[in-house]
Amino acid sequence: MEGKYDSRNNLNDLTGKEWLLLTKSFWVSEKCADDKAAFEHPAPFLIKDIEKLISFFTKKGMTVLDPFMGSGTTAIAAYNLGRKGVGMDLSEAYRELALGRFEKKGMAENDYLYLIGDSTKDLAGLGPADYIVTSPPYHNILKNTSQGIRKDNSHKGYRSGSRKGVEYYSDLPNDLGNQKSYADFLALLAVVMKSCCRILKDRKYCTVIMSDFTVDRKEICVQGDIVRLMEESGFDFVGTTVLLQDNKPLYPFGYPYAYKINHMHQNMMSFRKKAQA
Ligand SMILES: C[S@@+](CC[C@H](N)C(=O)[O-])C[C@H]1O[C@@H](n2cnc3c(N)ncnc32)[C@H](O)[C@@H]1O
């Protein structure tokens, strides 16, 4: 451990030096060998990135909730740091994938709780939580049929091709990724976040990880919408850490006619439960 631990620190187990480093407004995303098994899921977190968040927002023994648990990365990161990961997903297949990962890590049944359920209705049984970290399905972008330049062009040298397996999460109507409009998606996410706020302990933190994206070919400032939604759901915005993903493939979306951005980062937007929420 580098630096000194302050006995007044009631947020985490970090020394002052370690605390300061994690307040940087950008981090570089880090891979590890255990990430590989998650790539059957279309959009898993990387374990090391989530470990850093958990190390900042919790102490050993605390409970970390992910209402969109997918391949179980949050529970693995929590376990690696001596915390307990709890969460939920609609998909039996992703739970199975996660359980396979947990078994490989040697995680015992009481090291995690992974329920099958709908986070818009069933979250109450998972609380109380000390910290929430999650990434909701991005509206319906995985179902975007106008793939254009994004289809497999690996032979032309600009696709990493690290993902395999399913192209979108499910056909279930309450899957947030299946909402017809972006407004419907935001409305349903607000339901989940209000329920997250109820089961989060007083003045504790929640991080939502998303990148901006296009809806009907129009660039959307998703970050702005999420901050507004969270403020209306009982949280105060405390800052965005930009997670740089410099190894993603580049696509010439607008070339040679118009500027179209390549999103090479995620916004890790952190919030604190309002005092009166
Ligand atoms: C972006 S992924 C999360 C991936 C996860 N962070 C991981 O590391 O694997 C979003 C997940 O939300 C799930 N989901 C969508 N709608 C849901 C709902 N209403 N309740 C629970 N889970 C839902 C999807 O099945 C999908 O696995």
General description of the model:
- By secondary structure, the protein is an alpha/beta fold.
- The chain has a single domain, classed as 3-Layer(aba) Sandwich (Rossmann fold).
- It is 25% helix and 22% strand.
- The protein has 6 helices and 10 strands; from the N terminus they run αβαβαβαββαβββαββ.
- It has helices spanning 16-21, 47-57, 73-80, 92-105, 182-199, 222-232; strands at residues 26-28, 63-66, 84-89, 112-116, 129-134, 200-210, 213-215, 218-220, 235-244, 265-273.
- The strands form 2 sheets. It has an 8-stranded mixed beta sheet with strand order 1-9-10-6-5-2-3-4. Strands 7-8 form a two-stranded antiparallel sheet.
- β3 (84-89), α4 and β4 (112-116) form a beta-alpha-beta unit.
- The two termini are 36 Å apart.
- The model is unreliable at 145-166 (pLDDT under 50).
- The protein binds S-adenosylmethionine.
